[in-house]
Amino acid sequence: MADALPYTDADPTVTELLATHPNLKMDGVCGLMMDGVSLTAIANAVGTPTWVISADTLRTRMARLKNAMQAAGLDVSLHYAVKANDHLAILSLLGKEGFGADIVSGGELARALKAGIAANKIVFSGVGKSDAELQEAIAHGVGQINVESAEELDIIAAIAQKLGRTATITLRINPDVDAKTHAKITTGLAANKFGIPYEEAASLYARASTLPGINAVGFATHIGSQILSVAPYRAAYARMAELVQSVRSQGLSVSVMDCGGGLGISYRTEVEGQPEALAGAMKAELGHLGLKLAIEPGRWPIGPAGVLLGQVILNKARGAEAPFYVLDTAMNDLLRPSMYDAWHGIVPLSAQDAATPAIPAHVVGPVCESGDTFARDRLLPPLQRGARVAILDTGAYGAVMSSTYNSRPMAAEVLIDNGTWHSIRPRQKRDALWHTETVPAHLTAGNT
């Protein structure tokens, strides 16, 4: 189910949302708890808006992915998709657990290395890698570069030769498979900007195998994000299996298949993507080929691990119409609802509020855009000024997409680990909004 599809069933209640989020519990006295820690206590200490991430949830979900692959008898390496949430604390945690990283920029490469993830465990994806980024990646010896085009292949070969290095590459293939997800997060259709056309793959791989400075080891594919069914995966992997067999029949070696990411989560009432089903699809279509497999999970492990705390600035009554609950949290903090019409659960922090009969309400932010809306006609308790809420499933593509639009400072970030919370980013100070800006002297002359 895509983020923007209209929903015809009733929204889940607070009780129903909590039942699908094992890291959250409503305590009658302390209110909403994450991993046994009071979210109200965190809000009291650091204010709102604040991102809160459960380290235990992230570890548990990554372990489930790993175990599903092992149970299927597959040789699979896991590379966390840094774009989902790139905080150094998150990357350090995953590095200590032995996972690699999937990056899409030089900045993400620098973050992964700083967090202690070894270069040979890093996969460099992305449709527009700059020469400088490629030079840095090759110099560091990243484990794999996923090549997006014939033009990029030639650029990588030239840079590797100049450095006197050999770049290990796979060709990212566009299998022209519809992932049945939101149009803005599908990546495997022929009309998308990503990957090499399937029809050109075999000939380009043959050429890659002859280029100096290039070690061509296999293929990669990625068909989209927030995928809830394994059917699109099976279709894509079946096409990739045919490609591997065709290339091998030409006497060329293929040892690696990067199967991408995109496994979806349950934001509302969807049945989330199942790692065991994904492993089954990989085994069914690719398991007989003796390949070293890889996946790039991002949203699935980190999305449900996070919440965004906000506070009601104003309950704006509108007579018989649904009121506006105006939060101190805005689209500059969480962009997904504005960008994708994404649905996120909203739960009061107060147990008393959560138990109050719900009414339809619109939940909005204070930014000067009509798109600064988190929910419309959402059944919620009457939330008065000062009431606090948690916006659920914001661990992925939340803080990492934030901005300072309307000169709003970046929100604070907190990590809960083993029942203790840690501040991992303080709230941005207002004067930091302009600390890198300079004003030409002639514009400041005479100012007081």
From TrEMBL:
Q: What is its EC number?
A: 4.1.1.20
Gene3D superfamilies xrefs: Alanine racemase, Lyase, Ornithine Decarboxylase, Chain A, domain 1
Q: Which family does it belong to?
A: Belongs to the Orn/Lys/Arg decarboxylase class-II family. LysA subfamily.
**Cofactor needs:** pyridoxal 5'-phosphate
Q: Could you describe the subunit structure of this protein?
A: Homodimer.
Which domain of life does the protein's organism represent? Bacteria
Which residues participate directly in catalysis?
368
> Sorted alphabetically, which InterPro entries does this protein's record hold?
Ala_racemase/Decarboxylase_C, DAP_deCOOHase_LysA, De-COase2_CS, De-COase2_N, De-COase2_pyr-phos_BS, Orn/DAP/Arg_de-COase, PLP-binding_barrel
One GO molecular-function entry: diaminopimelate decarboxylase activity
The processes (GO biological process) annotated in the record are: lysine biosynthetic process via diaminopimelate
NCBIfam families in alphabetical order: lysA (TIGR01048)
Pathway info? Amino-acid biosynthesis; L-lysine biosynthesis via DAP pathway; L-lysine from DL-2,6-diaminopimelate: step 1/1
Function (record text): Specifically catalyzes the decarboxylation of meso-diaminopimelate (meso-DAP) to L-lysine.
State what protein this is by name: Diaminopimelate decarboxylase
- Respond yes or no to whether keyword Lipoprotein is given for this record: no
Tell me the residue numbers annotated for binding substrate.
299, 336, 340, 369, 397
Origin species, per record, is: Acetobacter orientalis
Q: Which residues carry this modification: N6-(pyridoxal phosphate)lysine?
A: 83
Q: Where does pyridoxal 5'-phosphate bind?
A: 262, 296-299, 397
The cross-references to CDD domains, in alphabetical order and at most eight, read: PLPDE_III_DapDC
Instruction: Identify the residues that the record assigns to the Orn/DAP/Arg decarboxylase 2 N-terminal domain, covering every copy.
Output: 58-300
Q: Which UniProt keywords apply?
A: Amino-acid biosynthesis, Decarboxylase, Lyase, Lysine biosynthesis, Pyridoxal phosphate
What reaction gets catalysed by this protein?
Answer: meso-2,6-diaminopimelate + H(+) = L-lysine + CO2
